[in-house]
């Protein structure tokens, strides 16, 4: 698969899973010494993974899941997905823009950055995830 195909599949899977309820993320995130993301099957944050959500940084699977759970009910609408190779030949970076509805509120613009690292052909884990809402300037 090309980096673009990996990014497209990952983004679709990540946001569909997130939108279907944070509790469903419990089966997607694991904590062990050899975590992987098998495209479409699993999305894994390992204990080295970091999430920065609106400036708050958390690390490790349990803390990442808890932070995402604290957001509440969400619905994402992805507008753009950009992908580039990383300095690590076994990694890619993905930048996503779109709109997010939190609860019943009006949609807000967001951007999110992912750094996916491969542990084997076709298997990745989310090493870094940075999320920001974009308010009017």
Automatic annotation (TrEMBL):
<keyword id="KW-0963">Cytoplasm</keyword>
<dbReference type="GO" id="GO:0051028">
    <property type="term" value="P:mRNA transport"/>
</dbReference>
<dbReference type="GO" id="GO:0005634">
    <property type="term" value="C:nucleus"/>
</dbReference>
<dbReference type="GO" id="GO:0005737">
    <property type="term" value="C:cytoplasm"/>
</dbReference>
<protein>
    <recommendedName>
        <fullName>NTF2-related export protein</fullName>
    </recommendedName>
</protein>
<keyword id="KW-0813">Transport</keyword>
<dbReference type="InterPro" id="IPR045875">
    <property type="entry name" value="NTF2"/>
</dbReference>
<dbReference type="InterPro" id="IPR002075">
    <property type="entry name" value="NTF2_dom"/>
</dbReference>
<dbReference type="InterPro" id="IPR018222">
    <property type="entry name" value="Nuclear_transport_factor_2_euk"/>
</dbReference>
<dbReference type="Pfam" id="PF02136">
    <property type="entry name" value="NTF2"/>
</dbReference>
<dbReference type="GO" id="GO:0015031">
    <property type="term" value="P:protein transport"/>
</dbReference>
<keyword id="KW-0653">Protein transport</keyword>
<dbReference type="InterPro" id="IPR032710">
    <property type="entry name" value="NTF2-like_dom_sf"/>
</dbReference>
<keyword id="KW-0539">Nucleus</keyword>
<comment type="function">
    <text>Has a role in nuclear-cytoplasmic transport of proteins and mRNAs.</text>
</comment>
<dbReference type="GO" id="GO:0006913">
    <property type="term" value="P:nucleocytoplasmic transport"/>
</dbReference>
<feature type="domain" description="NTF2">
    <location>
        <begin position="6"/>
        <end position="133"/>
    </location>
</feature>
């Amino acid at each position: 698969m090309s980096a673009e195909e990996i990014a497209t599949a990952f983004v679709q899977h990540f946001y569909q899973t997130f939108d279907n309820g944070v509790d469903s993320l419990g089966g997607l995130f694991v904590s062990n010494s050899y975590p992987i993301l098998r495209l479409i099957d699993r999305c894994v944050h390992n204990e080295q993974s970091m999430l920065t959500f609106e400036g708050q940084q958390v690390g490790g699977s349990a803390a990442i899941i808890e932070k995402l759970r604290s957001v509440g009910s969400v619905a994402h609408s992805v507008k753009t997905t950009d992908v580039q190779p990383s300095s690590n030949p076994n990694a890619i970076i993905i930048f996503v823009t779109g709109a997010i509805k939190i609860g019943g509120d009006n949609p807000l613009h967001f951007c999110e950055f992912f750094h996916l690292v491969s542990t084997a052909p076709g298997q990745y884990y989310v090493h870094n995830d940075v999320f920001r809402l974009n308010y009017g300037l």
